[in-house]
Amino acid sequence: MLQRSLIFCCMLLALACSSSKVSRQDAAAGKTQLLKNTFGTYGAPPRLASGRVNMEQLLAELKELNVTTYHWLIWQNENDWDDLQLFLPLARKQNIKVWVTVVPPTESKPIAKMSSEPYQMDYLRWAQEFARLSLKEPNLTAWSVDDFAHNLKTFTPSYTDSCLKAASVINPRLSFVPCVYYRQITPQFAAGYGSLLDGLLFPYRAESAGANLKDPSMVESEIATIRKLFKPGMPVFVDIYATAHSRLGASTPEYVKQVLEYSKLYADGVLIYCHQDPVKSAAKYNIIKEGFNKR
């Protein structure tokens, strides 16, 4: 009788472990599927005189650009978190997926004028809130931290893991795709963080050639170098500087066009930094529209 009980307990344990493994595999597959076909713009939405996001205008522009994804930044207005919750169901009706970014300590108060409100640098809370919101609005598919690798004293592997586990308990299909620059994507970084990430948001700046916003020719080689450091299939999303960089200056429309074409060939998706005004930045806006309509 005791032997039968032991056998039965072992069978239950094996079944539980098998179910857990299948569940993890299903969640990973779900993330991968939701991250596919990512083409969109980031931040800088049109705003009303009140400072709130002009939802109608933003959605009209995103539809014209033929995006699949809009990357929402919580940093430019104290109501950005509230506006995100209003935007998601509207975007869902247009079949637009949404990513969301919060800023790290190096871009928060007192260093910067704004923090990501309302939870500021409580990234565990952000992870949980994003997961809860993504259950309600399933087109919220990924969250990110800007300048992630500039802030590894905060985002240690253990702290990052605790945030991601807290989110996964709520919604295991919400992806984490932090912003990491080429020079920071080292073998040490890959060893410490590779198993925690669902993808990399890679702002292209030709850093293997000294960093500039003029040379689009390094897209293929830099992406290939990144891929070698991580597990097979790790998605790499290129972030293209359409808006000027504080140190490297402005990019040209032709540069944006060429980086976009290379990124479509070699990356797993493309996001434009930042969303361009169709009047003030008409040349770049139209290049992005043409590029996204020729996927």
From TrEMBL:
Entry keyword Acetylation: no
Signal peptide (residue range): 1-24
Keywords in alphabetical order: Signal
Keyword Signal: yes
Coiled coil: none
Name this polypeptide is given: Glycoside hydrolase family 42 N-terminal domain-containing protein
Record-linked SUPFAM superfamilies: (Trans)glycosidases
InterPro entries (alphabetical): GH
